[in-house]
Amino acid sequence: MLPGLSRRALTWFLSSAAAVLLPWTPLPAAPAAAAGTAAAAACPAAGFVSQHFHDGHNGTDIANVVGTPIYAVGDGEVTISGYESGYGQWIRVQHADGRISEYGHMIRRDVSVGDRVTAGQQIALMGSEGQSTGPHLHLRIWGDRSTTYGIDPEVHLAERGVVLPCTPGSGPRPEPLVYPSESGRVVSARSADGRLELFAAGADGIHHAWQREVNGDWSEWEPLGGPGDAELAVAPNADGRLELLALNGDTFEHRWQTSPSGGWSGWENFGGGGRDAAAGVNADGRIEVYASGPAGLFHRYQLAPNGGWSGWEPTGGGPADSRVEMGKAPDGRLEVFALNGSTFQHRYQTAPSGGWSPWTGFGEGGHDLTVDHNADGRLEVFASGPVGVFHKYRTGSANWSGWEPVGGPADSQLTSERTPDGRVEVFAMNGTTAMHIWQTGVNAPYSDWAVFGTGGTEVTATSNADGRIEVFGTSHAGTFHKWQTGFATWSDWLWLNNSAGPPVG
């Protein structure tokens, strides 16, 4: 990677880059969501049902006065926010279970393409724009996305605990899934206020930089001390405070924010040395940590959200001295993947926040791995080795595909992140090149590999608060970054704040 000048101000223009689809446009086929993964929903709007779903009326109408707030029925990402003559102002939200909610005839829209919304979040105000006989919300739910007709919104909502007519703010609310951050020699996560925090492990300890404002420029690098040449993991406490873990062959230490988005504690001992570590958040908010070493894998977990820790417990094996990553199933169960040069194994929680399965074979050995999730929640795993990169993905609640080759750089460091419209993007870096691939559609196959930069030693990707992916790479010269300026456009590789940052060997 090449050092550059200080970061330029950029305009985020996802709205202009996104393709606007007509409300009746067929959607590309996607794998069906796993059975039993329906999340609780939120009430879309106060009012009475003025027209039900039927043959000839693709949706449910909820009538009320102009300006009545409209709410997202579930967590998801805004894929359309615009105007169409028959619909007036309208919004489409992609949900993790593969379904899509659609809202029409609004007088005002409060969200833009790329925004991530939560169930019950206000997204618009009711109106009577387009082909409408009076103020109402026209709500559509797309289920089988290969057809041109939706499913009954009243049935969809009732299955998730909301019966129309309803009162906004009442009824069940799903807890947002906290997906584990990538571990490695360089890691990043968002503070509770939306600013990215970055940590890079050099020979002299850990170095830290942070965004000075949400989606903004970066601070100077700050040396933190701690273990030299460490593997890092980061996870949020239930109250939003980040926890940083650092492991090398001799020691394991951790530190944490003393308040959400605030300052940091000093380093405290967390255990003996090892090879690698990964951290994730249980469905009940407790952080869980896995670490590998010559005797396999051990784990340690918070006894209560934001609370103290258990002792280290053996996991019954796992690959010795392995690279470790975590994923999270759509129902909140953590899953651990561990890879060394000769074997690949995984284990998973048998219930959210519960006990663990035995280790089972997941494939042959390799160099590195990354775990991400499709827009419908299905986990996807990538692993690198001497002949390139392979991937394997959930085909249902308990089944996996076989390993499929995707090409790419041999023996590369891997990371992945989701684009604002829900597509997985994978980044691979070895000593001579950096490349990336991306899903060509939501839950879809992947593009060909494209050059992303020159070689380096480590790479990680995360998302800004506005959804833009930001990638951090390290080399013997320092630590650099590159970020999305649109759905398919990127900045150059640049220093953070015109400073090379720590070299990572």
Compose a concise summary of this entry.
The chain has 505 residues and is mainly β.
Task: Provide a descriptive summary of the structure in words.
By secondary structure, the chain is mostly beta strands. The protein contains two helices and 38 strands. The protein has helices spanning 14-17, 153-158; strands spanning 48-51, 60-63, 69-71, 76-84, 88-95, 100-106, 108-109, 116-117, 122-125, 136-142, 186-190, 196-202, 205-210, 222-225, 231-236, 242-247, 251-256, 268-272, 276-281, 287-293, 296-301, 313-314, 323-328, 334-339, 343-348, 360-364, 368-373, 379-385, 388-393, 404-407, 413-418, 424-429, 433-438, 450-454, 458-463, 469-475, 478-483, 494-495. It has a seven-stranded antiparallel sheet with strand order 1-2-10-6-5-4-8. Strands 11-12-13-14 form a four-stranded antiparallel sheet, with no helix packed on it. It has a four-stranded antiparallel sheet with strand order 15-16-17-18, with no helix packed on it. The longest helix has 6 residues, at 153-158.
